Amino acid sequence: MFVCPHCQSENPLQNRFCQQCGKALRELQAIVMPIAPPRETAPSEAVSTHSKTAVSPSATAVATVATLFTPQNRLKDQERYQLRQPTDADKPLNADVTILSILDCEPAADSPLVEFLENAPDDLDQAAIDELIPPLAFPYWELQESLYPVVPELQAAWQIENYAITVIEDRTSWRTLTDLASAGVVEPLELVHWLYEIIALWMTLSPFAAETSVLAPDNLRVDDDQVVCLQRLIFNPDETPPSLETLGQLWQTWLTQSSLPQLEPLEDLVTDLVAGLLDDPTTVQTRLIEIADRLSEPTSAAEPAVETAPSTTTTLPLAATDTPGETVAALSIEEIAAEAKASAADSPLLLVEDLLLGAELDDAANSSPEAESASEEGGLGDLPTMALPMKLHRLDDAGRTHVGRQRAHNEDSFFAHTQVQRLNSPAGAQVTARGLYILCDGMGGHSGGEVASQLAVDSLKEYFAEHWQADLPDEEVIRTGILNANQAIFDQNESEERAGNARMGTTLVMVLVNDHQVAVAHVGDSRLYGLTRQELTQITVDHEVGQREINRGVEPAIAYARPDAYQLTQALGPRSNQEIAPTITYLTISQDTLFVLCSDGLSDNELLENHVESHLKPLMRTKVDLDDGVADLIDLANEHNGHDNITAIVVRLKLRPNLNAIADSE
Known about the structure:
Layout: E1 2-3, E2 10-11, E3 27-34, E4 81-83, E5 98-104, H1 112-119, H2 126-132, H3 138-147, E6 154-160, E7 163-169, E8 175-176, H4 177-183, H5 188-205, E9 220-222, E10 228-230, H6 244-257, H7 264-274, H8 281-295, E11 305-308, E12 327-329, H9 333-340, E13 349-351, H10 352-357, H11 363-366, H12 369-376, E14 387-402, E15 412-425, E16 428-443, H13 448-467, H14 475-495, E17 505-506, E18 508-514, E19 517-523, E20 527-531, E21 536-538, H15 545-551, H16 556-559, E22 583-588, E23 593-598, H17 600-603, H18 612-616, H19 626-640, E24 646-657
Parallel strand pairs: 12-22
Antiparallel strand pairs: 1-2, 3-5, 3-7, 4-5, 6-7, 8-9, 9-10, 11-15, 13-14, 14-24, 15-16, 16-17, 16-18, 18-19, 19-22, 20-21, 20-23, 23-24
Helix pairs in contact: 5-8, 6-7, 13-14
C-alpha cells in the first residue's frame, strides 16, 4: 500500500488513480547511477562540460537502498518523492543502474527544475546549471526541448553521496514497439517510418554516447500519437559506441515476429546491417526512404463510409506576419517541400527529422566537436529526409471565463465549437474536423461591455453557421461577418444614443479551423498565441496606440511612454464599418500545436510568456485534460493579474503520419 498525496488515503500498489478521491497518481521513476571519479578527457571527447561516465563495480563500496531514503520512504534532499513500492532497505544498489518506482507527493506543484528555471535570473550562467544538474542527468536537459516526447522530461536531478538521482516520468505502462510488431497491428509503411525514427535517434544520441538507448527492446515505447519514444536514456558501456550490426539484429527480430507480408527490400536492408555491410547511418536512412517511396505507390481505394467520432486534432508552423487590414498567407515547411518535389501529396507533409528533432538540437549540443563533425560529414546538419503525408488526428478545445478579483461584473464573452467526423475506408481511417472559436472583451458604461461582447459572439456564430459550408471562408467572407457584428453593436449604440465613453464596444479574436488550415481574425488587443514544441508565438499584434507608433518606426520605449499607449485603435461597435479594418491571417498547420485565445486579463504582464513551461507545455500532451488546464490558467491570472475579467479558449491540434496516403504520381 502507498499513501495518496492528495487525500492521504492508502491505495494498492497497482492503482493509477486514488480509490478514495479519484485523482491521478503521478508516477515517476528515479534512475540511480553511481558517479564515476573524474578522469582526463581529450578535447575531441567532450560533448559539454559534463562527464557522464558511471563508475565501475569495483570503484566504490556497495551501498544499499537505505542510502537514498529517509525512514518515511522519502528520497533524501527531495522529500516530495515517495517510494511507491516497498523495498528492502538492505537491498544493495546495482553497480550500473537502479530504477525505483516513486510517487510525486506534490503533483500540483511545479517540478523542482521548472521552479528553478522560473525563478532563475535572465543571465543564468553555465556554472549555475552545472551545480543544479548532475552530469549523468545533463543529456536529458540538453535533449528535452528538441526531443520531447521522444526523450522523457527531466523532473529533478541531484546527488546523494556517490550517486546521481535522475527523476523522469514513468513510461512502463506504454506499449513497446516489440509488442506491437508481435501483435500484427503494424502496417508496412508504419514499420518503415518507425525504423527511420530509430536510425535518426541513433544519430542524435551519438554525441551523448547513448545509442544503446535504441538497442534495448523494452526501452522503445510508442505513445498515443504513434511516436517512437524512449523509456529512458541508456548510456553506452564505457562510452564505447555500439555497432549498426547490433541494431540490425534487433530489426531482424521484429521482422521475424511480425505478420507483415514479405518486404524484400526491407529484408535486404536488415540482412546487410546484420552482415556489417553498412556502417553509415545516413545510408540506412536513404534506403528506408527508397522503401517508403515504393510502399507509397498509388493504389485504388473504395468510397469511405462516414461516422461521427469524438473531438480529435492536428499541428502548425507559425510563420505569418500580422498587418492590420491585410490578409497574410503563411507557407509551411510542408508547402516548401511540396514545391521542391513533383510528387508531393495533397495533404501537408512533415519531415521526419522535424517530427523527431524539432528545428535543431540545443546550441550546446550543436557546438560540441562531435556535433560539428557529424554536420561536416553529412550527419545531424545534413540528414536525408523522408517526407510523410500527415493526417488530422485530434482536435480538442476548452474555454472558461472569470470575473477576476476586482471587477463587479464580467464583460467578456466566448464561444467554442468543434465538429469531428471519422471516415472509414479500406485505405484506413481519416479524421476531418472544423472548429469555430470566438473571444470578445467588452467595454462601455452601464453594462454596455457584456452586451457588446455577447452581441458580437451571437452575430458571428449565426453568420458562419450560414456562410461556412465547406472549406475555410475566404478573406471577404470573414471580413463581412466581422463588419456585420460591428454594425449590430453600432446600431444599438445609435438607438440608445450612447456617446463618448458610454458607447459600448468589444475586442475580437477569432480562429476558424478546417483540418490543417486555420484562419485568424482579430480587432483590438485580445490575443492569439500558438505553442509548438519549439516555442510560444504571439500570432496577433495588438491594435493600440503604442503598437501603431512602433509600426510607424518609433522606438518601442518611446511609443509606450505615451500616456495613451494602451488605448485601442480598433474595436467593434463604437465606429461605423468604414473605420473598421480587421486583421485576417491564414496559417497552415504542420506540427502539434496549442492555440490560446485570451483577453488581456490573462495576457497582461507577459503572464503566458513567463509560464510556458509550467502552464502551457503540459497541455500539448494528449492525456492532459484541457478543462483542468484552462482552470489553472484562470487561477494563474487571478494570482498575478486579477485586475480585469479573464477569459481563455485553448485549442489543441495533433497530427499523425498518414501511412495510407496516396502520393500524386506527376
